[in-house]
């Protein structure tokens, strides 16, 4: 089912917002990564996923490593080039889990956080659906949250907490967004699940109109809206704010 979710989701993405993008990554090869070691002894890891047009070099130029380590000097930063090809291949969640997250746990980090921008933000949410609560924190940077139809359906129902998704259905190309939002609605029933989920986006971001659908699942202080658009400059600045606020809450899952 996990593979089907990613495969079906990719069909929509390719014909929608992502149609003009170059396909990043090669699923025949391991996920390309670049580690930026912590300035001091590392106790935690922040994994950063790319936006739809980003490659590994773009992630390294993004300013995210400096932003993260300026607040958490004990954090290694791992850029993971989980590009569109892995979503289309249907292996993104499993590959991210097996090749990145599990090895990180084996290296002994006390926390592993997952962050993604745009496509990568959606990827972080899909990962949480496949492996609920596996990451110690999620930082969603202007995530792609689905097409207008599903967002309008939830809004017209009175919001995500009042939306009635109906009985669970097998994932297909027509309903993958619906089933992802069904998963997100579980955060409303178990608020502890979202206590270390953060959302940040710009007030001129082209995806900003979708964000209010997700925001009711988070506390107001977990949502950062800052001046700017869909850029790494804004996201790296927001990341500094998130991690400055986050340490008191970074004790998920008893770790």
Mean pLDDT value: 87
Tell me the span between the first and last alpha carbons: 28 Å
Main sheet strand line-up: 1-3-2-4-5-6-7
Classify the beta-strand content into a percent band. 5-15%
Give the CA-based shape: globular
CATH superfamily caption: Alpha/Beta hydrolase fold, catalytic domain
Structural class category: alpha/beta
Order of helices and strands: HEEHHEHHEHEHHEHEH
DSSP helix fraction: 40-55%
**Total individual domains:** 1
What CATH calls the topology is: Rossmann fold
Give a short account of the largest sheet.
7 strands, mixed
User: Which parts are unreliable, with pLDDT below 50 for 5 consecutive residues or more?
Assistant: 1-22, 248-255
SSE layout and pairing:
Elements: H1 2-15, E1 33-36, E2 44-49, H2 56-61, H3 64-71, E3 75-80, H4 84-89, H5 92-106, E4 111-117, H6 119-130, E5 137-141, H7 148-156, H8 176-189, E6 197-202, H9 211-214, E7 223-226, H10 232-245
Parallel strand pairs: 2-3, 2-4, 4-5, 5-6, 6-7
Antiparallel strand pairs: 1-3
């Amino acid at each position: 089912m996990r593979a089907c979710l990613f495969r079906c989701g990719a069909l929509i993405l390719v014909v929608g917002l992502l149609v003009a993008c170059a396909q990043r990554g090669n699923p025949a090869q391991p996920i390309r990564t670049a580690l930026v070691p912590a300035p001091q002894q590392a106790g935690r890891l922040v994994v950063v996923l790319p936006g739809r047009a980003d490659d590994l070099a773009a992630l390294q130029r993004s300013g995210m490593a400096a932003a993260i380590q300026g607040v958490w000097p004990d954090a290694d930063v791992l850029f993971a080039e989980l590009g569109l090809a892995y979503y289309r291949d249907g292996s993104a969640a499993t590959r991210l889990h097996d090749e990145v997250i599990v090895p990180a746990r084996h290296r002994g980090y006390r926390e592993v956080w997952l962050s993604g921008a745009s496509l990568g933000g959606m990827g972080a949410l899909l990962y949480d659906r496949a492996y609920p609560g596996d990451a110690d924190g999620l930082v969603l940077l202007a995530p792609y949250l689905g097409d207008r139809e599903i967002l309008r359906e939830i809004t017209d129902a009175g919001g995500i907490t009042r939306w009635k998704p109906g009985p669970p259905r097998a994932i297909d190309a027509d309903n993958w967004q619906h089933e992802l939002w069904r998963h997100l609605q579980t955060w409303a029933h178990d608020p502890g699940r979202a206590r270390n989920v953060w959302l940040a986006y710009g007030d001129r971001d082209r995806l900003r109109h979708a964000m209010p659908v997700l925001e009711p699942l988070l506390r107001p202080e977990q949502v950062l809206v800052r001046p700017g658009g869909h850029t790494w400059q804004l996201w790296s600045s927001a990341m500094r704010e998130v991690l400055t606020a986050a340490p008191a809450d970074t004790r998920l899952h008893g770790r």
